[in-house]
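Section 5: illustrative case.
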C-alpha cells in the first residue's frame, strides 16, 4: 500500500530514508530548515529526486523538497524525523503546529530518548496518544550523502531494528505502521530499551578519542573502522559496552551487546570488539569525521553518554569509563558536556519517576 511519507532532515540519514521510501513506491516529501537547504535539499529539488549507490541503487523521485514545513507536512501519514540528537527538539518545535490526529511520527534514530524529547518540544504530554510518536534504536543504514542530492548506502539491514512508541500502549499500532517501510522491525518493550540498545555512543567516542591526533593531523583521512579500531580501541569499546549492559540489567531491560547486534544487523561477521569492527563488511570504506568537533563526540557523548550516566546514577550503577570519556571529551572540545546536560532525566521531565514508572512509559 502506498503511503504519504514526510522525511524531516536532509542529511545522511534523511537522504537514505527518503530514497528507500520513494524506491518502495511511497510518495515522499523532504524537509529541511532553511539554514541547511544548501546541503542536498536544493539539489534534490532541482533534479526531482535522489540518486543512490551502494546497497540501494538508482534514482527515486521526491514529490516535494523544500523548507516550507506546512507544504512538507501536507497529507503526511508517516513522518520520519531523521537527524542528530540536537535536531530533535528544533524539529519538534517546527512540526508542532502541523501535527494532526492519525499521523505517526518516527524518531529515527531515537538517540536516547528522542521520542520523549520530541513530544516535550512539540508541547505533547507523555501519555498523549492522539498522535503516535515512537523511536527506533538506530538508523537502519550506514550511509553518507555528498550534499549534492546523492547518497551512498554502505549497508542497509533487515534484522535488528528495535522500535517502541511513547506511551508503550501504542506499540501495536506503531509497529503495524512502521513495518510498512521496515517489515522486520522488532517491538521493544519501552523507549528505554531502544535508547539503551543505541550502539553509537559505545563505538564512536572510543574510536574517535583513540585516534584524535591522527584525525587532527589528516583531517579524518583514514578509514574509521578498518584502520581506527585497533586492539586498544577495542578494549575501550568493550569497557563502555559493559557499563551500558549493566545499566540495562539494573533497569530490567534486555539488550544485546554491541558486537552481537552488529552481527544480527549484518554489519559484522564475528562478535568481538576488535576485528569484528575492523573487518566488518558493513563498515567497509567509511571515512573518519573531518574534524574532532563532530557528532561522534558532540552527539554520542554530549547527549547519549551523558544520558546513560545520568540514568546509571539513579540506578546506583558505576560508570567510570563513560565518566572518563565525558570528561576527556569535554577537555578536547573545550566544553563542559556534563554541565550542559543536553539530554538528561531532568531535561526529559523524568526526574520524579522511579525505575518502575520509567518502564511503564
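Designed sequence:
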Amino acid at each position: 500500500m502506498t503511503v504519504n511519507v514526510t522525511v524531516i532532515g536532509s542529511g545522511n540519514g534523511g537522504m537514505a530514508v527518503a530514497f528507500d521510501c520513494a524506491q518502495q513506491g511511497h510518495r515522499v516529501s523532504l524537509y529541511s530548515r532553511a539554514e541547511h537547504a544548501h546541503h542536498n535539499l536544493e539539489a534534490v529539488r532541482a533534479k526531482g529526486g535522489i540518486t543512490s549507490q551502494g546497497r540501494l541503487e538508482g534514482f527515486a523521485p521526491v514529490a516535494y523538497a523544500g523548507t516550507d514545513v506546512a507544504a512538507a507536512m501536507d497529507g503526511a501519514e508517516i513522518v520520519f524525523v531523521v537527524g542528530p540528537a540536537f535536531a530533535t527538539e528544533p524539529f519538534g518545535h517546527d512540526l508542532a503546529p502541523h501535527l494532526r490526529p492519525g499521523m505517526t511520527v518516527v524518531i529515527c534514530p531515537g538517540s536516547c530518548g528522542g521520542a520523549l524529547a520530541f513530544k516535550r518540544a512539540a508541547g505533547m504530554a507523555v501519555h498523549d496518544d492522539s498522535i503516535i510518536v515512537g523511536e527506533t534504536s538506530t538508523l537502519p543504514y550506514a550511509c553518507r550523502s555528498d550534499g549534492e542530492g546523492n547518497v551512498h548506502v554502505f549497508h542497509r539491514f533487515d534484522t535488528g531494528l528495535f522500535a517502541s512508541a511513547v506511551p508503550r500502549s501504542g506499540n501495536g499500532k506503531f509497529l503495524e505502521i512502521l513495518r510498512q517501510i521496515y517489515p522486520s522491525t522488532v517491538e521493544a518493550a519501552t523507549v528505554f530499551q531502544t535508547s539503551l540498545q543505541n550502539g553509537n555512543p559505545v563505538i564512536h567516542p572510543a574510536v574517535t578519542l583513540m585516534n584524535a591526533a591522527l584525525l587532527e593531523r589528516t583531517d579524518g583521512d583514514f578509514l574509521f573502522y578498518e584502520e581506527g579500531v585497533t586492539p586498544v580501541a577495542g578494549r575501550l569499546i568493550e569497557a563502555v559496552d559493559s557499563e551500558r549492559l549493566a545499566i540495562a540489567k539494573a533497569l530490567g531491560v534486555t539488550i544485546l551487546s554491541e558486537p552481537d547486534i552488529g552481527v544480527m544487523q549484518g554489519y559484522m561477521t564475528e562478535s568481538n570488539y576488535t576485528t569484528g569492527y575492523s573487518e566488518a563488511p558493513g563498515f567497509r570504506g567509511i571515512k573518519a569525521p573531518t574534524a574532532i568537533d563532530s557528532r561522534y563526540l558532540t552527539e554520542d557523548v554530549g547527549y547519549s553518554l551523558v544520558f546513560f550516566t545520568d540514568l546509571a546514577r539513579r540506578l546506583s550503577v558505576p560508570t567510570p569509563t563513560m565518566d572518563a570519556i565525558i570528561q576527556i571529551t569535554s577537555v578536547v572540545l573545550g566544553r563542559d558536556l556534563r554541565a550542559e546536560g543536553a539530554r538528561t532525566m531532568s531535561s526529559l521531565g523524568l526526574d520524579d519517576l522511579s525505575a518502575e514508572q520509567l518502564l511503564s512509559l
